Amino acid sequence: MVLERGLASTRVADIAKATNVSGGLIHYHFATKDDLITEMLRSTSEAEIQRLREIADGPESAVERLDHILRVCIPASRDDQGWILWLDAWAVGMREEHVRTILLQFEGAWIDVLRDVIAHGVALGEFVCDDPQGAAERLDGMLDGLAIRYTLDAGNMSRARLLEHARVAAAREVGLERSAFPAEAAP
């Protein structure tokens, strides 16, 4: 329902009807719509961050981990439901504190994962980067901006081109040549 109607326009009654449960049952578990939306966003963001942490802690080289995270974090397609949800949440978060709080926690955790992968690569001698935190913040901002352009189909951005931009930027941030990352547009 949230993907269909948007965070701001979805009502508890809409969710109750779509899930074939009573509004009273939903209100038994969530006092307000804000509580329900907050829990939905928290659960979604925690699952996404857990997935990224598993990649970050995986057995691959630092370059492979960073590339894997880049591929996971860009939209799979223009109608990627996860990205549509986050785009909507960012808009709502400008006005609603409960959504903004979740978004800031999610962005902070995502940047932490990126920073940790970069710092790990530096410790292994695979990367050269004197500011892993700054590198992670720059990559985050660039990826968010390009993903928005891609999702909105602005400027005919393809997923392959978005991934190429991500790999070029990541290589620059960690002191590598672009050729250190895969040449093909991985799935």
TrEMBL record:
Boundaries of every HTH tetR-type domain copy: 1-48
Record key words, sorted: DNA-binding, Repressor, Transcription, Transcription regulation
One Pfam family per UniProt: TetR_C_6
GO molecular function, one term: transcription cis-regulatory region binding
InterPro entries (UniProt xref): BetI_C, Homeodomain-like_sf, HTH-type_TetR-like_transc_reg, HTH_TetR, Tet_transcr_reg_TetR-rel_C_sf
DNA-binding span(s): 11-30
PANTHER family cross-referenced by the UniProt entry: HTH-TYPE TRANSCRIPTIONAL REGULATOR RUTR, HTH-TYPE TRANSCRIPTIONAL REPRESSOR BDCR
Name under which the protein is recorded: Transcriptional regulator
Species lineage: Bacteria, Bacillati, Actinomycetota, Actinomycetes, Streptosporangiales
